[in-house]
Write a structure and sequence with these properties.
This protein is mostly beta strands. It is about 0% helix and about 55% strand. The protein has no helices and 11 strands. Strands 2, 4, 5, 6, 9, 10 and 11 form a 7-stranded mixed β-sheet that branches. Strands 1-3-8-7 form a 4-stranded antiparallel β-sheet, with no helix packed on it. The chain is globular and about 40 Å long.
C-alpha cells in the first residue's frame, strides 16, 4: 500500500520560509519522480516542482529562485524548501510520486502566507 505523508505546512508572514517534507512508503521508487503540486482556493491544481531519482529538477516559473526541491533516496523522502514566501503561495501543497507523471498523491498540507 502506497502512502505519502506530508508535513511542515503552516501559517507564516510574507517573506518567511517553510520546509515541507514528504515520506513515501510502499512504492518502488527506482525510477519515480517525486514532486510537489499545489492548489489555491478557486484555482486548479498546479505543478510546483519535480525531481527525478537522478536529481533532474523542474520548477514552475512562479517559484523559481525561491523554492528548492530535494530528495533523500535512502529515506524515500522529498523536501520543498520555500523561501521569500508570498501571499500568492497560499495553497494546499500535495506530494506526488510516479513515473512519468504522478501516480500517487498525499493528502496535502496547508500553507498560508499573510501579508
Amino acid at each position: 500500500q502506497v502512502q505519502l505523508v506530508e508535513s511542515g505546512g503552516g501559517s507564516v508572514q510574507a517573506g518567511d520560509s517553510l520546509r515541507l517534507s514528504c515520506v513515501a512508503s510502499g512504492v518502488a521508487n527506482c525510477r519515480s519522480k517525486m514532486g510537489w503540486y499545489r492548489q489555491a482556493p478557486g484555482k486548479e491544481r498546479e505543478l510546483v516542482a519535480l525531481i527525478t531519482r537522478g536529481e533532474r529538477i523542474e520548477y514552475a516559473e512562479p517559484v523559481k529562485g525561491r523554492f528548492t526541491i530535494s530528495r533523500d533516496n535512502t529515506k524515500n523522502t522529498a523536501y520543498l524548501q520555500m523561501s521569500d514566501l508570498k501571499p500568492e503561495d497560499t495553497a494546499v501543497y500535495y506530494c506526488t510520486v510516479g513515473f512519468p507523471g504522478p501516480d500517487y498523491w498525499g493528502h496535502g498540507t496547508q500553507v498560508t502566507v499573510s501579508s
